[in-house]
Design a protein that fits this description.
- The chain is an alpha+beta fold and about 190 residues long.
- The chain is about 25% helix and about 35% strand.
- The longest helix is centred in the first third of the chain and has 21 residues.
- The chain starts with a helix and ends in an 8-residue tail after the last strand.
Length: about 190
Amino acid sequence: MADLAALTRTLARNVRHWRTERGHTLDALAARAGVSRGMIVQIEQARTNPSLGTVVKVADALGVSIPTLLDQVPGPRVRIVPEEDAVVLWRTGAGSSGVLRAGTETPGPLELWTWRLAPGEAHSSEGHPAGTRELLHVTAGELTLVVGEESHRVPTGSGAVFAADAPHAYRNEGATVTEATMAVSVPYEKPGG
């Protein structure tokens, strides 16, 4: 629980910092993120542990990566992220998970993930900002990638690149665990531009 409290405080400090850095009011950030002003206030005051979906929306609206919002201390030019410092953003009882390994600004967010889906499990995502691209490489099992209404089978050893501005989902329709590495690039659009 202490780790969650520290993560909540870090998120509060970093959202406030980047909102100020980007010149957004509370109302402007809430509108860009598609969440309520009250949610932004609660996040900035460390009074809530927002859902992964909310953190993604806020990060996208600020034009920063999720690791940037969760970083406790900005790193040096080269930053090694030990296994124990990776952030598990979702996990199920069946063993599925999404682990954020590293991220940076380029000038928009660039994130590196590892995903694990137990047989029969899936994870869905709303569309990200226009111009967002995801690249993935399946290292075990077979992934069913759903983008909009279309399903695509991605077998072990294969990769996929797609525009992630439409709703999308990752499914394991097989009998064995699916594992994948994924990179997400979100372009940053300055307010008014």
